[in-house]
Write a structure and sequence with these properties.
Blueprint: E1 15-22, E2 27-28, E3 46-47, E4 56-64, E5 69-72
Antiparallel strand pairs: 1-4, 2-3, 4-5
C-alpha cells in the first residue's frame, strides 16, 4: 500500500499510528450522508473496524504532517 512509509503526494516519511475510539465502530461516511444515530442503527458508511464493547477500537493509519493527510489501512 505505502512503500517504506513514504507519502504518495509529497514524498516525506509518514508516521504509522491509529485512529481510536471507545465502544463504537469507526466508519467512513460519504459526504451528504448522516452518521447513524445509535450503534443498533444500520451502517451509513464503510466500517473501518469491528465493533467491540469490551476493548478499545482502533484503525491503523499513516499520517503525513507535511500534507496533513491520513491514509487508512483497513
Amino acid at each position: 500500500m505505502i512503500d517504506n512509509n513514504i507519502c504518495p503526494y509529497c514524498g516525506n516519511v509518514m508516521k504509522l499510528g491509529y485512529l481510536g475510539g471507545v465502544r463504537y465502530q469507526l466508519e467512513w461516511i460519504p459526504e451528504g450522508k448522516k452518521q447513524r444515530p445509535t450503534i443498533l442503527s444500520k451502517n451509513t458508511g464503510i466500517p473501518l473496524n469491528k465493533t467491540s464493547i469490551l476493548k478499545l477500537n482502533k484503525v491503523y493509519a499513516y499520517y503525513c504532517n507535511q500534507c496533513d493527510l491520513f491514509i487508512i489501512r483497513k
